[in-house]
Structures are given as C-alpha cells and as structure tokens.
C-alpha cells in the first residue's frame, strides 16, 4: 500500500496509508525517468494528497510534483510523482563545482552532493545489493568545473565524462555503479510470458561511410591515404550510407581518425553502422505467483527475447509496471546510452588497439588519458609526471606532489620549487626577493658586473682574480 509523509521527511518507514489508491504505476528507466503515478477517489482523506509531499511505494520515496482533480462521472485525484533522486537533485542550486583533476568518479560524485541530504553508498552497502562502483578498478578522470548547475545535471556530465556508469538511488543513498541489474536466465517468449512483442529495426541514422571532421573542419586525409572518409565492413551488407560527424574536441588528424574508427568498432554499443534495434512488449509478471518467484524481472537485467526462433540477448532498460495490480508490465529491452571510447581512453586499452597519438589542442573535454585542455586550463600527463596549466598558473607535479609553481595567485606573482621531501627549496616573496634553502650549486655567479667563479685549484675568484682570505 502507498503511504504519504510530510515534504521534509528523510526516513520513510512510517506515514499515513492511502489504501484507496488505484492505477498505481511505477516507471523506471536507467539513468532517466523514475516516476510514480496513481489515482485516488475524492473523499475525506483525499485532501492529504497535495503537492511536494512524499509518497512511499515499495520502500522508495517519490515527491508529488503534480495533482489533478477531476469532477464528473467519477470524482478522483490523479497524482504524478518523481523519485526523490530525480526531484530533489534537480532542485539544488550549485554555484560552482571546481576542477577535479585525477579523481575517481566516486570522489567527484561526493563533491557534487556535498552538503546535501544525499549520501554516497559505501562498498559494503553496494556489495549487499550485488553492485560495484563504476571505478572499482581504480580508474580516474579529470572533471572540469561547472557553474550554475544542479546535482542532477552534474551527474549526467559525470557519466558522459566516464563514458559509462549508471546511477543507483535507494532514496537519498546513491552511487554511480558499473551496471544495475544482473545476468538473468529469463526468456521472454510469446508462448510463455509475453502478451506481445514489438521488435523495430531502424536504419534512419545508420552510416557506413563516415566523413569525420575535427576542430576548424580538420580532416583525416593526411593520415588515411588521402581519403577524408572511412568505410565500414557493413557497407557490403547494408550498402553505402554516407554521413559525417563533428569531433570538435580534436584537432590532430590521427586522433580524429581513431575517434571515427570507434564509430564502427564491434565493442562500441552505440556503433553507427548497424540498424538500431528497439524491443518493447507487454510482460505477464508471473513472479507474483508463489511458484514463479524466480521469474521476476528487474531494471537492468539482461534477458533473452525469442523472436521467431531467434534469440536476442539485451538488457531491460525501462520498466513500467503496476505493483499492486495484475496489469501487464511493459518493458523496453535495448542498450544503455554510453560512449565507451572515453572510458577506454582513460584506462589506455584503446591506445593499444589503434596507434597512440599525442594530446590534442582546442576545446577538449576531460576524457583523454594523454592530456586535456579546456577554457579554464590544460593538463598533460607524461611518464615522469604531470604539467597543469590552470588559468594563469603553471604547475609541475610528480606522483601527485606539486614540485613547481609559476604564475599569479590572487594578483601576486608566485615562483616556488619544492625538494623531494615537499619542503620549499626556492621561492619569491611578495616583495620580489628570492629565497634559497639548502645547498646552492653553480659554476659561476654574476653579481652586477662581477663574475664569481672557481679556478682549477678550487679557489674562489672575482673576474678571474683570486679572493684573498684572511690568514692565507
């Protein structure tokens, strides 16, 4: 049964039962819509159903966004609700999220939701529900600053930055995970548990001959035998279908070519040289029967669809079901929108498959393992360390420790060099004086018009003449 609570509730185990609710429908889409809709007869209890209150369904909290009242042959209220993650994360204003360079996605997620009612789930909590953090393998990203945004939009940018990841929300406890759901043995078949199946194959956006362009319309002719296009092997199957893509993130032809090749890659779930397959259908949820509990279907599960004897194995990416009624569940089977090109760039495996190229220039998002550039700065990683050009300061670091800083901070010129222990070795004060700490070694020292050197006998000289020391 549904329960209703005050708008500012943060725990959801109590509440007033609204048992007369009917047509209770839950809609859940991976990384997208998650809503609750229901109707309620107008009576002495219906007044408690009002905007912004919390409604709990199957342990999950939804915020009432819209209430419609109908008076006529049937007098009832229709309520539209959004899950508290979708509703509340969209209505928290963030003035600025700073650059987060070389951080795990989970760390970035924590910064996005800092000082909010949301908390990031721990590894032990995720293990209990059979999930893993998107960065469980340890990969890191560069997340550049965002201004005037909200956590919901920032998470979308984070997922795009990672190239993969799915948001898991258990009310106000959240995590960015590798995937939701599990590998299921469930088979969706018209002869067994499907009321109907609609399988749509669409070539509207299919491209088998691709013209890729980079920044300022840079093309790949110089690195592709003079050809400014690439052709998919599937052109022999589906014919030649020309198209283009703008990759304004890249300026070097070799990088543009590598990005274009990914569009036809067999490991790319969003490859553009095959028809788009969309599967929807009405599912008879027999898991509600005692003997068929293992037939339950969950969002994110990988299932097998039987189409005229052919097996199509894909994930459940959208569910629309009635938790308290026997109405059929409507499911959508397909692939979650992602771009693994950038994820593979982060962990470096793609560089092993195609030729390695250097860091690109121009407007580049924080998705490159070799280097990144944005309007607010640049970061280049090398085997021996990192160089960061952020705004008007240059930083050189090794192993995460900043060794050199040159630039302006708060209107003051900064020049600072640290030793291997992290102690300041050379710095310039706000008065322009340069301080040296530790040993100072040089072949000669020029002071004004005088040159101080050391002769072959190890004696100090000024302008070639020995310096007499008292007692010699």
TrEMBL record:
Domain of life, source organism = Bacteria
Residue ranges annotated for the Prophage endopeptidase tail N-terminal domain, each copy included: 19-83
UniProt protein name:
Phage tail protein
Q: Which residues form the Tail spike domain?
A: 149-340
Q: What are the top taxonomic ranks of the organism?
A: Bacteria, Bacillati, Bacillota, Clostridia, Eubacteriales
